[in-house]
């Protein structure tokens, strides 16, 4: 182990230092929310009314995506399986507890306390997904110290951006196509732009897959695929909105999957399927329907969006990723710009179209719940009429469809700008010499940071056969 990449002091100092900080912050600011606080219980409370039973299934599903789905998916390199899965595990565990605090400080501003419940964990998981998507851009080229620093810095930038967009611009983005996928993509691209390695454009001897690593990666794809409807529907309005979100996500995933198989065969010189296409392009439909997932876009639109997202994603992998690496100095290792950037842009555009086409004839009074910012403002007589039909309907901003569409466009540009700048600044920090960054020769190699098993031949990088 080279001294410049030794984790003996760097990793413990960073981890224990952050744990001391978080213990102090949790002790001072974090308490239970009403659904977890024993003081709020009484003899007439029905335990089944607790939000635990409504929200925990979504939390569990997203947790599987975070720790198993992403972990297996990132283990596709032949000699980087330990690192892909374990660094994902480490980063995710740190990010979720950090996100609870950072996101909670906006609640603290209003309530004077961070109230912790299952819904906070779900929000923290979404923030964690942002970091793990960005991680894909620098996979194999960074140390665990660098990844923790990236998470440490990305979460505040993401949380501030999310808060500003939702509070001041105010958009519809149920599945997170703008605030999760676009943000994560362009933050990751900003980081990898700063960490550019010219020699890697010529390829790397260890930048290869194997039969076993590809199977493991596809297992990650399957976990993500199966649980993606929960990811897209977790924070939508309960009831028919959430029902539509599940339906649209599943339809979009199905159409993108079969399209991916067709495209893989068409563009293959030998007419065969490519595992990289199955591992990544099949998931494009889940992102492409994200921004419209709770809207009345019709099942056929969800199907078409899945095809469009898959096609854009596939062509991006085939043509755009090499171009960006050679011409723009952006080495997008896992192609996050294709799976999350291009599809996020398509999804955001589809949402703008859906907003412009939304009418009461299609949605009924519930249009002002789904598009909450189009609801009449306080004092408008129409608000009282709508509240009689939908008890609990909150006052909106009285925006027209065109006005809301303009705000959606503004949110797209603001999110991309904030994430790209944040990514570049984070990359500059990660580039510092004490971050244990691997050399070009040591990239994509588990041996740099792990004690390898005895059945692993360190000289030939081949697993010994009995």
UniProtKB/TrEMBL annotation:
Tell me the protein family, please.
Answer: Belongs to the ammonium transporter (TC 2.A.49) family. Rh subfamily.
Spell out the subcellular localization from the entry. Answer: Cell membrane
Give the GO terms filed under biological process for this record.
ammonium homeostasis
Source organism per entry reads Gouania willdenowi (Blunt-snouted clingfish)
PANTHER family, A to Z: AMMONIUM TRANSPORTER (PTHR11730), AMMONIUM TRANSPORTER AMTB-LIKE DOMAIN-CONTAINING PROTEIN (PTHR11730:SF48)
- Predominant localisation class: membrane
Source organism, top-level taxon: Eukaryota
- Tell me any Pfam family this protein matches: Ammonium_transp
- The identity of this protein, by name, is Ammonium transporter AmtB-like domain-containing protein
Q: Name one GO cellular component term.
A: plasma membrane
Spell out the coiled coil positions from the record: none
Keywords assigned: Ammonia transport, Cell membrane, Glycoprotein, Membrane, Transmembrane, Transmembrane helix, Transport
What InterPro entries does the entry give?
Ammonium/urea_transptr (IPR029020), NH4_transpt_AmtB-like_dom (IPR024041), RhesusRHD (IPR002229)
Membrane topology summary: Multi-pass membrane protein
Q: Does the keyword Thylakoid apply?
A: no
Please describe what this protein does.
Functions as an ammonia transporter. May play a role in the elimination of ammonia in the gill.
Tell me where in this chain the Ammonium transporter AmtB-like domain is found: 22-432
Any GO MF annotation of the entry:
ammonium channel activity
Transmembrane region positions?
Answer: 12-32, 56-77, 89-110, 116-140, 178-196, 208-228, 248-268, 303-320, 341-358, 405-429
């Amino acid at each position: 182990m080279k001294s410049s990449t030794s984790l003996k002091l760097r990793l413990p100092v960073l981890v224990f230092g952050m744990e001391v900080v978080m213990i102090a912050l949790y002790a001072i600011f974090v308490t239970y929310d009403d659904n977890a606080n024993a003081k709020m219980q009484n003899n007439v409370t029905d335990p089944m009314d607790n939000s635990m039973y409504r929200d925990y299934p979504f939390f569990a599903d997203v947790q599987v995506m975070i720790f198993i789905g992403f972990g297996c998916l990132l283990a596709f390199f032949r000699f980087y399986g330990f690192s892909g899965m374990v660094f994902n595990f480490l980063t995710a565990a740190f990010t979720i507890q950090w996100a609870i605090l950072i996101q909670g400080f906006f609640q603290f501003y209003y309530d004077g306390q961070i109230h912790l419940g299952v819904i906070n964990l779900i929000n923290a998981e979404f923030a964690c997904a942002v970091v793990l998507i960005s991680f894909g851009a620098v996979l194999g080229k960074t140390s665990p110290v660098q990844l923790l620093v990236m998470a440490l810095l990305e979460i505040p930038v993401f949380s501030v951006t999310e808060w500003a967009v939702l509070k001041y611009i105010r958009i519809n983005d149920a599945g997170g196509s703008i605030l999760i996928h676009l943000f994560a993509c362009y933050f990751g691209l900003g980081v990898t732009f700063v960490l550019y390695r010219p020699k890697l454009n010529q390829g790397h001897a260890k930048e290869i897959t194997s039969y076993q690593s590809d199977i493991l990666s596809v297992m990650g794809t399957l976990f993500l695929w199966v649980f993606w409807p929960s990811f897209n529907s977790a924070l939508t309005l309960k009831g028919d909105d959430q029902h539509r979100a599940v339906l649209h996500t599943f339809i979009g995933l199905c159409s993108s999957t079969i399209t991916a198989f067709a495209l893989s065969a068409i563009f293959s010189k030998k007419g065969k399927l490519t595992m990289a296409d199955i591992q990544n392009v099949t998931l494009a439909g889940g992102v492409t329907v994200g921004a419209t997932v709770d809207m009345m876009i019709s099942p056929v639109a969800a199907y078409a969006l899945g095809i469009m997202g898959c096609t854009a994603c596939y062509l991006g992998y085939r043509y755009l990723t090499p171009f960006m690496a050679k011409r723009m100095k952006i080495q997008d290792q896992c192609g996050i710009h294709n799976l999350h950037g291009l599809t996020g842009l398509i999804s955001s555009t589809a949402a703008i179209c859906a907003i412009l086409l939304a009418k009461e004839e299609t949605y009924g009074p519930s249009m002002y719940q789904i598009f909450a910012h189009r609801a009449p403002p306080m004092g408008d007589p129409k608000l009282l009429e709508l509240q009689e039909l939908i008890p609990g309907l909150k006052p909106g901003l009285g925006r027209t469809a065109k006005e809301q569409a303009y705000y959606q466009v503004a949110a797209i540009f603001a999110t991309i700008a904030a994430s790209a700048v944040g990514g570049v600044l984070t990359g500059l920090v990660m580039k510092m010499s004490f971050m244990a960054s691997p050399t070009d020769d040591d990239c994509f190699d588990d041996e740099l940071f792990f004690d390898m098993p005895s059945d692993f031949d360190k000289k030939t990088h081949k697993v010994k056969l009995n």
